[in-house]
Amino acid sequence: MVPGFHHVEVWVVDFDAVRAEWAWLLTQMEWTLANQCPGGESWAAGGAHLTLTSSPNLSGEHDRRTAGVNHLAFRGGSASDVDALMQNAVRNGWFPLYAERYPHAGGPDHYAGWLENSSGFKVEVVAD
Question: What average pLDDT does the chain have?
Fold first, then answer.
């Protein structure tokens, strides 16, 4: 067996509304668009896939603070790569979280940035 995820599928309220935000973020981290379908698309990196698609069964808006996935954490490269991504995030639909504690909101030995997009989805970008 090989450990790790094969894929993660994230259902969003309105994929078309957040498509550009996700595309910018994933492209910055060297993910590659692998497949597109009506209402969604899949991205690939390092043998793993991330699929983003509109939910067929909405029960309300996304709230990362309720049961379910709180956030996805991505490898972000060097500390300077993370810094550059964080500096450009706002112009691309992502807003910083915990800015007053950046880049060590996760502790003194953890260099990362946290972002939230327009639909409230949170990601963490971790330096190597």
Answer: 91
Calculate helix-pair angle for 15-28, 79-89, nearest 10 degrees. 150
CA distance 7 to 44: 9
**89-118 per-position pLDDT tens digit:** 999 999 999 999 999 999 999 999 999 999
Q: What is the CA radius of gyration of the chain?
A: 15
b (16+ CB within 10 A) / e for 109-120: eebbbbbbbebe
Residues 72-86 have pLDDT tens digits of: 999 999 999 999 999
- Distance of alpha carbon 82 from alpha carbon 102, whole angstroms: 11
- Per DSSP, the three-state class of 64 is coil
Question: How far is 81 from 128, CA to CA, in rounded Å?
Answer: 10
